């Protein structure tokens, strides 16, 4: 269950990271409130997952999922650069996340 919560926390982390783009420096009320809710929910789920998972693994996986999701969103929706080299590094990130999970006790 901890791994499931951690993945959901990572997806929420990607969501609030992207949400920051739409808050316009927290001057737009609805995107700001949604982003803050995402931050709180993501941190809460990370904390619950860290009750049973090592924090070093949980935090790295949480950040990795968030970075991966925000990057994919940026490339597909916001028109950010999508080069083969960026995809290669995203693949390395996925390998790292998977490796951390597989070597965690």
Automatic annotation (TrEMBL):
Q: Which UniProt keywords apply?
A: Cell membrane, Membrane, Transmembrane, Transmembrane helix, Transport
Q: What is this protein called?
A: Guanidinium exporter
According to the lineage, what is the superkingdom? Bacteria
Task: Indicate the segments annotated as coiled coil, or none if absent.
Answer: none
Q: Which Pfam families match?
A: Multi_Drug_Res (PF00893)
**Which InterPro entries does the entry link to?**
EmrE-like, Small_drug/metabolite_transptr, Small_multidrug_res
What high-level taxonomic lineage is stated for the organism?
A: Bacteria, Pseudomonadati, Planctomycetota, Planctomycetia, Pirellulales
- Cellular component per GO, a single term: plasma membrane
Membrane topology term: Multi-pass membrane protein
Annotated GO biological processes are: xenobiotic detoxification by transmembrane export across the plasma membrane
The Swiss-Prot or TrEMBL record describes its family as follows: Belongs to the drug/metabolite transporter (DMT) superfamily. Small multidrug resistance (SMR) (TC 2.A.7.1) family. Gdx/SugE subfamily.
TM region positions: 33-50, 57-79, 85-103
Which residues constitute the signal peptide according to the record? none
- Where does the record say this protein resides? Cell membrane
Organism from which the protein derives: Stieleria varia
Output the Gene Ontology terms for molecular function.
transmembrane transporter activity
